[in-house]
Design a protein that fits this description.
Layout (H helix, E strand, L loop, with lengths): L3 E5 L9 H15 L4 E2 L4 E13 L2 H14 L11 E12 L3 E19 L5 E20 L4 E16 L2 E18 L2 E11 L1 E4 L8 E4 L2 E10 L7
Antiparallel strand pairs: 1-5, 2-3, 3-4, 3-12, 4-5, 5-6, 6-7, 7-8, 8-9, 9-12, 10-11
Length: about 230
């Protein structure tokens, strides 16, 4: 008798979220007590962000599907990975119409497969860690307190799924809106992130592509003296 699957990526077994929630809770107090170097037209400060990405890692999804077929499981829902969570932190140097950023990004795409009928539950995790260097150009709105921004940068992604791992350079393009409320700066954004590499370490199994190319939505936030964009 075949077991029936119940697939869940984010809503069940939320223990993996705890480290992210703890970080988000303690970051404001850390930033508020951090030392800032600022002048009337520039500032140097830590920045942080969270976001979600939408992607389709073809070889990773094929791996999961093939394993399900080999185990003889019946799918109730789609087993594909298509969503991941990203957190990032780094340093920003801000002047009037530009900022320069050095970030470290961490992405995680979990997939849990709950097997009904006595079978063992299955879990998968596909991760990416990447340093990113980027620059943004700000277009002031109204009095200059808030601004639209356009930007981009280069990254180097280290990706891992099961026994497969690979790394490669990539890039990110982004656009968003910068909102300054006193010393609190919030920047909701949308982005395109190119990150793709191939594991060629096992000639018998063939190449395995690790693909984190995606569209993203998220928000960056920081604490620093207000700097007018005009």
């Amino acid at each position: 008798m075949k077991n029936k699957l119940v697939i869940d990526s984010f809503s069940r077994k939320g223990k993996w979220l705890r480290p992210f929630l703890i970080i988000l809770l303690i970051l404001p107090s850390i930033v508020l007590h951090s030392q800032e170097s600022s002048t009337g037209s520039g500032a140097f400060y830590p920045s942080f962000g969270v976001g979600f990405g939408f992607f389709y890692p073809g070889d990773v999804n094929d791996y999961i599907q093939n394993e399900m077929d080999e185990l003889g499981y019946i799918e109730e829902y789609n087993t594909d990975m298509y969503l991941y969570l990203e957190i990032r932190g780094g340093l920003t140097y801000r002047i009037k119409n530009f900022d320069f950023n050095g970030f470290l990004e961490y992405d995680i795409a979990p997939k849990w497969i709950m097997v009904e009928g006595g079978g063992d539950d299955l879990s998968y995790s596909y991760s990416r860690i990447s340093p990113l260097i980027s620059v943004n150009y700000f277009i002031p709105v109204g009095s200059g307190k808030h601004a639209f921004f356009l930007g981009g940068g280069v990254n180097y992604s280290f990706m891992k799924f099961k026994e497969y791992s690979a790394s490669n350079p990539g890039f990110k393009l982004q656009a968003g809106f910068s909102l300054q409320f006193g010393k609190f700066n919030m920047q909701p954004f949308g982005a395109f992130n190119y990150a793709k590499a191939t594991d060629t370490s096992d000639p018998d199994q063939g190449d395995f592509e690790l693909n984190y190319t995606s569209g993203q939505i998220g928000v960056n936030f920081s604490f620093h003296p207000t700097i007018n964009y005009k």
